[in-house]
């Protein structure tokens, strides 16, 4: 094999290796971006799970107050309902906290995160609903209606 031919093959091989290395680097960068996208989507699913759990606890608290009214003393029904409603408030706060302060930010993703102000506004409203439910639960015990 002549030396010029060996040099040409070596140059072709080096070029192929360089192209392969560049392609591998682009592929790794793309996988990193996709991983960041998956992280954001997972955070949104976690947020939705916290809110869903909070709404379930809120509805359960109001329902427990209504259904347990004739079965157990009023104070016990109200306490049970209050515990469920308080747990719903915790879930609403945890949803925002977990979503906004999730840890180290991922590399620049392709998708946008939900705006923090929107999460705070929605969950703030849900906390007000939970507080209103607590007032409603305890109102007839603390301020009984006078018999006519």
Quick structural overview:
Helix content is about 80%, strand content about 0%. The chain has about 150 residues and is mostly helical.
Notes on the protein architecture:
With 148 residues, the chain is mainly alpha-helical. It has one domain (3-142). The protein contains 3 helices and no strands. Helix 1 packs parallel to helix 3 (116-142) and helix 2 (74-100) runs antiparallel to helix 3. It starts with a helix and ends in a 6-residue tail after the last helix.
Outline the secondary-structure elements.
Blueprint: H1 3-67, H2 74-100, H3 116-142
Helix pairs in contact: 1-2, 1-3, 2-3
Number of strands: 0
End-to-end separation = 115 Å
Question: How many domains in all?
Answer: 1
Strand proportion, as a percent range, falls in: under 5%
Helical coverage, percent range: over 70%
> Shape from CA axes?
rod-shaped
List keywords for this structure.
mainly alpha
